[in-house]
Amino acid sequence: MRIERTTLADVLVLTPEPFRDERGLFTRTFDAGEFEDYLQAPGAAAAFVQDSQSRSARGVVRGMHGRSGPGEAKLVRCAHGAVHDVLVDIRPQSPTFARAQAFRLDDERFRQLYVPPGFLHGFQALTALADVCYRIDRPHDPSQDLAVAHDDPQLGIRWPEPVTVVSPRDRAAGSWAELRAVLHLTPRS
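Now predict its structure.
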């Protein structure tokens, strides 16, 4: 498995190296030992406590979601189809605070993202159906949900497809400015 840093502080891209033959392919989607060795953090993989999966049709946008409090680390991959995955750093002390980066996750390259606590996350389905799998390091607590509108002009996220469906919760999401106020963040100069 190849592990690489991204332009966002502490975000990693993990790319398995599949074995392909006339039957198809086999790949290891996660290796706790390699992950922990790379992070130099024994036990980090054991912190994952929940796996979840979503299925979306082409054009659906889910996000931009995050967690307050201690946040939530996650490992995100697209098990079927392809998605345009977007992260926004909301950690005030981070050198990449308020920056966004997009990634293509699909069922051909098997890339996945390690997202540390303190990020907004969202994606758009690029194929007829896209299944996204999330491995997270703490149980979901709805009282700590954060959300910013997927089309917030201050974030300026460009979705590659026309947006077809957004959940009522995501339609009601606040703005980046409102989230900064809630988190008591001041704009960077």
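The domain at 49-182 is CATH 2.60.120.10 (Jelly Rolls).
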